[in-house]
Design goal:
Layout lengths: L6 E9 L5 H9 L17 E6 L3 E7 L9 H16 L2 E7 L6 H13 L3 E6 L11 H10 L4 E4 L8 H10 L18 H16 L4 H4 L1 E8 L5 E10 L2 H8 L4 H18 L2 E10 L7 H7 L4
Parallel strand pairs: 1-3, 1-4, 4-5, 5-6, 8-9
Antiparallel strand pairs: 2-3, 7-8
Helix pairs in contact: 6-9
Bound molecules: guanosine-5'-triphosphate and magnesium ion.
Length: about 300
């Protein structure tokens, strides 16, 4: 593709937990590559998605929601945010427009200000807002704080105004050749996406502390049988009691997690999958360098 006006570059999605960053990533890419949930801190490491249009190629860098780090895990999550802010061409500050402004929002805004980078403000979840004029105070607040290149209200969930957002992001990228092949959707290894899909189902089926004490690692990904891909995933928890919750009565919960995740993985791979899940108790994995390295959450 040698088009003089073709644009390409990296765009970082930055925002508080639950703003809808990964929902938007999946929608723009057109495939589920990132876990989405109604629990905060769903995304744990940067996830890159690639969207190629006739006008350009955007490489989306989805990041963990900005939060105060407690465990080493959370420090690495925040390092991924800072790394993305430094390395991308354009930033997207994603804000849940249906909630009022808090200290967390100011903190995210400060990160954008300190970067002095070109940034677009995306006001998400407008499907939850009755009257569009309710957005005006928010728009006024943000435009007084920073010179955003664009302010765009969207609904990532419903896909409202998302095509326009893609055009606007592309417009602000530098001119240049595509960075990845046109048909590539992500540079994430399949093993890592598979682990995300399993973790998404754990987040969907468990409450309270379980989402935070759980990690998933793909330990085997065997495509030698052309009729079905064989996948083994280890689910880390920190205590025996948590293992019991994930397995459920007579193994019922683990079975449900596996069945739902398999549907998503088969859709992505376009072939049959044999998925085996097992639960490992690893005390304090969230504070151990070697465990975090195994899980794929790097410094
Ligand atoms: N009503 C509504 N809900 C949305 C919209 N976009 C995302 N959500 C929901 O918001 C929740 C959080 O979405 P995620 O995409 O996981 O948010 P995130 O910003 O990636 O969160 P972290 O990874 O924790 O930082 C999920 O329950 C989504 O379904 C939207 O446009 N409208
Ligand atoms: Mg996310």
């Amino acid at each position: 593709m040698s088009n003089e006006n073709f644009r390409s570059g990296y765009v970082g999605f930055i925002g508080r937990p639950n703003a809808g960053k990964s929902t938007l990533l999946n929608r723009l890419v057109g495939e589920k590559i990132a876990a989405v949930s109604n629990k905060p801190q769903t995304t744990r490491h940067k996830i890159q998605g690639i969207v190629t249009s006739p006008e350009g190629q955007i490489v989306i860098v989805d990041t963990p929601g900005v939060h105060k780090p407690g465990y080493l895990l959370n420090r690495r999550m925040m390092a991924a945010v800072h790394d993305a802010i430094l390395s991308v061409d354009v930033l997207v500050l994603m804000r849940d427009a249906s909630v009022s402004t808090g200290n967390g929002d100011r903190f995210v805004l400060d990160l954008i200000k300190q970067s002095e980078k070109k940034a677009l403000l995306v006001l998400n979840k407008i499907d939850k807002i009755k009257e569009k004029h309710e957005l005006l105070p928010l728009i006024e607040f943000y435009s007084n704080e920073y010179e955003f290149a664009e302010i765009i209200p969207i609904s990532a969930l419903r896909g409202e105004a998302v095509d326009n957002l893609l055009k606007q992001i592309t417009k602000h990228l530098p001119e240049g050749e595509p960075i990845f092949k046109e048909d590539e959707l992500t540079d994430q290894p399949m093993r890592s996406i598979v682990a995300e899909m399993v973790r998404e189902q754990i987040l969907a089926t468990t409450g309270e502390e379980i989402p935070y004490v759980t990690a998933v690692v793909t330990e085997k990904f065997d495509e030698s049988d052309p009729s079905a891909t064989l996948i083994f995933c280890a689910i880390y928890v920190e205590r025996d009691s948590q293992k019991g919750i994930i397995i459920g009565k007579g193994g019922s919960k683990l079975k449900r997690i596996g069945t739902e995740a398999r549907v998503d993985i088969e859709k992505l791979l376009g072939k049959r999958v044999f998925l085996k899940l097992f639960v490992k108790v690893v005390a304090d994995w969230r504070n151990k360098e070697s465990n975090l390295d195994d899980i794929g959450i790097y410094e």
